[in-house]
Amino acid sequence: MPKLTTDQMDPRNNLEWYTKEAITNNAEVWTPQMIRREYSRLRDIAQKRLSRLAVAEPGSYAYRKNVGQYAPARGQSTEALAAKLPQLARFIAAKTGSVRGIRAQQAAAVRTLQERGYTGVTTTNIKEFGEFMEHYRDNKVTHSIGSPEAVEVFEFYQEQGIPWQTVKEDFAAWVRAKGKLETYIKKQNAKGREVSADDLIKEFNKQEAARKKRNEQQRKRRKQKKQGGEAG
Question: N vs C: which end of the chain shows fewer Cβ within 10 Å?
């Protein structure tokens, strides 16, 4: 690698210079003084970004991944700073590492989704949509439901005007029911029927109603048993 000048040392332009390998193999550039100076400079940028993200996008991946990660250089060894520098550089270079970058990504995502016919996702609910999809993927709701179906489920909640807190509570119940939903999909597919998001919601509601009925019956039986014991 050719030696970079000070004004070129910026991960937004030369991220490859901030990898662990580049720092280790280019000691003539990454001197202890350079490592300490560059870490401090990038940390200042990062702290300002994190402060803005804490207000505007506290639930974003960029904030959750980086908050509390970059202690001041003072008191840390050169080795410790060098080990942390690649992650710090990636944060600075990431397109979604700032509020502006996240907003741009959200706007692009909305345009793409609306072009594909998902008009229920807008700039006003894109944050909730991102959280919904992340939760959806993390919980692997069901292997038989893909991202397009997940978008339809989100749109259904939006069209019904259901509060976001309720959506999250319902989703927790949905995760509990994922095994039965997979069985339902397999049975319908075996009959040559395609399962839509509306079908899944109806089946989910049916299962939830049955679950609540069972819980209520169990509660009544426990109450009756308790009262019988007290009478005895």
Answer: C
CA 146, 148, 154 angle in degrees (round to 5)? 105
Cα torsion through 49, 66, 8, 82, rounded to 10 = 140
Q: b/e for 109-139, b at 16 or more Cβ within 10 A?
A: bbeebeeeebebbeeebbbbbbbbbebbeee
- Which of 70-79, 105-114, 117-126, 146-155 has the largest mean confidence? 70-79
Please report, for residues 143, 150, 177, the alpha-carbon distance to residue 171 in angstroms, rounded to integers and kept in the order given.
16, 11, 10
CB 153 within 8 A of CB 197: yes
C-alpha distances (whole Å) from 180 to each of 154, 176, 184, 203 are: 20, 9, 6, 9
pLDDT tens for residues 14-59?
Answer: 899 999 999 999 998 899 999 999 999 999 999 999 999 998 888 7
Burial class (CB within 10 angstroms; exposed 0-12, middle 13-18, buried 19+) of 16: exposed
pLDDT in tens, 192-232: 877 665 676 677 677 777 877 887 888 888 888 777 766 65
Instruction: Specify burial of residue 193 (Cβ count, 10 A radius: 0-12, 13-18, 19+).
Output: exposed
120 to 57, 113, 167: CA distances (angstroms): 22, 9, 15
Token readout for 110 is 């909305």
| Closest of 147, 142, 146 to residue 129, by C-alpha | 147
How far apart CA 167 and CA 172 sit, in angstroms, is 9
